[in-house]
Amino acid sequence: MRKVIAVVNQKGGVGKTTTAINLAAGFALEGIASLLIDCDPQANSTGGLGFARDADRLSIYSILSGEATVTETALQTDVEHLTLIPSSKHLIGANVELVNAEDRAFRLRNALAKYTGPERLVVLDCPPALDILTLNALVAADSLLIPMQAEYFALEGVSELVQTLDRVRDGFRPELEVEGVVLTMYDERTNLAQQVTENLRTFFGDKLLKTTIPRNIRVAEAPSHGKPVQVYDPRSRGAEAYMELAREILQRNKIK
Amino acid sequence: MRKVIAVVNQKGGVGKTTTAINLAAGFALEGIASLLIDCDPQANSTGGLGFARDADRLSIYSILSGEATVTETALQTDVEHLTLIPSSKHLIGANVELVNAEDRAFRLRNALAKYTGPERLVVLDCPPALDILTLNALVAADSLLIPMQAEYFALEGVSELVQTLDRVRDGFRPELEVEGVVLTMYDERTNLAQQVTENLRTFFGDKLLKTTIPRNIRVAEAPSHGKPVQVYDPRSRGAEAYMELAREILQRNKIK
Ligand SMILES: Nc1ncnc2c1ncn2[C@@H]1O[C@H](COP(=O)(O)OP(=O)(O)OP(=O)(O)O)[C@@H](O)[C@H]1O
Ligand SMILES: Nc1ncnc2c1ncn2[C@@H]1O[C@H](COP(=O)(O)OP(=O)(O)OP(=O)(O)O)[C@@H](O)[C@H]1O
Ligand SMILES: [Mg+2]
Ligand SMILES: [Mg+2]
User: Fold this and answer.
1) CB contact under 8 A, B221 and A192
2) Using a CB-CB distance cutoff of 8 angstroms, which residues of chain A are in contact with residue B95?
3) For the segment B94-151, what is each residue's pLDDT rounded down to a tens digit?
4) Residue B177 bridge partners (DSSP)
């Protein structure tokens, strides 16, 4: 019943965190209980929802290292129906510590399998790397949401991401699929954007989501106030676009 | 005599690769022989200078694993005075393979110490992570150039980057210093940009470089043509800004 969506792209700065926060908030604002899990040692999803850095607080690291459960770690956010598993800089050690562990790719999946909380949707914010942290997210996920900037370097990274997806399917998880590709910080007027979008459409077909997220200063300001953009400025173009994205995904999954 | 500048920021998408390519090209166009080293498994600096992916070609991975020297690996680019050490996806294995090697942080520095090529300046493009690859770059470097977007998440990452710099200084390399912080994709008109810039100025003082790089579509288009922006569109605002940045750094170092 619960669906786990990993927000993933090894290219940096394409809007993974921004999409993870505002999509999970979008689901919650539509009344769907949602859990956001910050899987990045940089802890941007955690900070962007208003939680200060706290090295002693339970985090995703506590879960991956087996010291705590999801229930013990989850925090209520200021958004009704939205809970958070925070990250911490301790997570940076996990990439090294887990290297030789037998079940190193399954820690998050196993922890979620034991979790009986109320959330219907789980969103995972991944770091800009195809490392053990992202692997845990991929193996725990039912589907991948890929934020993309319509620019050259982001396009170059797509084939490698898809190869990783195929390897995870073959090796661990045949049911893993692409939820969709969402164009972020999108300005459709430039030639570059049009060319890259064409490439992506050829490659992904109708997995290329209808909703695109425009560049909008309110989206960049919201995390400095510790809020999703829909709470910070509900009438902004960014807020409307992320609500539209949440609804598109809910409809495709026949959730609402 | 040779100076090594690492372009570093663990935050993704702040313009490390774009700055590494266009700064190294800027030095070369000013007649200073320069070497660009792509230290990122995503190999964006390599692709952005027009080199197709080639898993068999010697790369930074060959150097870090001790199979090849800098001389054997360096390639001439289409820009006079600009040479390149390409990256390759094999590099992603290095983070795991080097974990237990005794001199794991010194591979690049040792290789450059043996290199007697003509380049006066070496620019290192780093991945969005504080991992073994970036550590090799930091230990090999004389100074760090930190590209920053004037936005909230980039600001949050600064203290961690500075802590890493201090650890590398104390542990390995007391002479390592900040070359400068350069604002990229900069739009000084927004409140957010002004607030973040103020914070950065307080923190970095006159290390915050005078040159700022504006958002300019030509900068994003240039790598899709395999060229630095100064070659792709020399009269664009992006090209002029990166030439200004190259000159500011050359002057601060009394090179020209
Ligand atoms: N639609 C938008 N309009 C304006 N700014 C945006 C938008 N989306 C994201 N940003 C800003 O762009 C920057 C990069 O976004 P974000 O940090 O979410 O990307 P990321 O993929 O999570 O990065 P990383 O790879 O470092 O994890 C941030 O400063 C963010 O606030
Ligand atoms: N001044 C600029 N104007 C317009 N676009 C820019 C500018 N600088 C960089 N870009 C674009 O922004 C995106 C991010 O830049 P870039 O890839 O250089 O960042 P990065 O820090 O190297 O990312 P990563 O963390 O993934 O290595 C790229 O698509 C690039 O072409
Ligand atoms: Mg992020
Ligand atoms: Mg880069």
Assistant:
1) yes
2) 95, 131
3) 888 888 898 999 999 999 999 999 999 999 999 999 999 999 999 999 999 999 999 9
4) B143
